[in-house]
Records
---
Amino acid sequence: MAGCVLRVKKDGFDPNEYLSSTSIDGATVVLDGFNLTVSKSDNLSSQIEEVEKFIEDNGETLENLTSLISPDAPEFNFGIWRNSNPVQSVSFPITLISKCSDLGIELCASIYEVNDR
């Protein structure tokens, strides 16, 4: 699965109660948390742009969320298809790192085999 997902999980967290009190729409509830697709793109640059826009549009909600589940942290999990090169690296722009750091959100990159498509 490529794309980027906001993952939220904390023992004892009630995702239904939280989601009903926010403007976050389309989340999938899991035990003690939820997952929200922020980008469906296979392209990392597009994912980053969409996440930065999501942060811009939902900064206050994300700030409240991180305060609520602290010391746990939500994460943006970027899905990336493995390339055919012997080495693959992932870089995030400092602007995204800074925004996520200010909000207390972690960044994760999951690399998937091409034959998993």
Note: The chain has one domain: 3-116.
---
Amino acid sequence: MSRGGTRRACAITWCLLALTLTASCSPAPAGEAHDLVVSNQTTLIVSLVVNNAVVRTVPPHTQELVSTSDLPSLPWSVETRSASGRVLSHMTVRAGDVAETALPDGGREMKGDVVRVDLSCGRLDVWSGPPLLGPPPGPGVPNDCEP
């Protein structure tokens, strides 16, 4: 497959994944916590750390959903770390960050918290609420995938 074809297939896969997740996730009531999702499309083993405690280890090229029942109460300080403990991403999730709003045209809009990192060895996304859509992964920088 050509490089353009590979990128197009990757973009289509990401869109389908996002649509599937959006369709299958029912929103929690306003002000309540929502699940955390980690999409580790890198070659690294990543630890998900919430409020300074490891709650999940996410293997390369996998996606993990962490239920609110496995998490402390809000707010959450959420980090992803490499095997050596290097912080790859950080975000804070507070009560009310994930919300659904009615639009004038009758549609609905959801907002949430998300952090994305494009590394030379792949993309790492973490979110609470709706997933982040966007362009194909960027190139990263040399040596950014060292453990």
Note: The chain has one helix and ten strands.
---
Amino acid sequence: MATVAFWIALGVIERELPSGTPGIVEFEFVRNASRASRFLAEWGAGGRDAVRLSLIVDYGFMASYGSFVTLSGLATRDFAREHGRRTLASAGRIVPWFAAAAAVFDAGENAFLLLTVGGHGGSAAPVLATTCASVKWVLIVVAVAYLIWGIGARLTAVLARRSAAS
């Protein structure tokens, strides 16, 4: 529930950005100081305040999604071990931790973006933010794919039990 609540809050904050300007996800992939300057100018003072607030609130979101997806991955791993799903269980030794790592990279990304919004960090902060964002997205996509694989395994187990019972 916390993850959903933070996600909704972030969506509400993002609506404060001026229409037709880059959004937060686009800012995650700002790449360089020149683009960052353009984004900041397009947003104006009010938009920069909204971005700053979004980045701060996002720390709560990353703690909630990092915990939720990691714990869900560990539960998926345990299910796989109990039901003889060797490949799923084997992947579960490391993949659930990708979500926690994604949250750590997300925190780094936000720190570099906050430096950028504040006019600090020079030309390095946008590059480092984009690097952290790229790693974060790869890690979280793999972690969520693992959960989807686990859901498929659970559905297969339920259908097999129903079929055996009939």
Note: The mean pLDDT is 97.
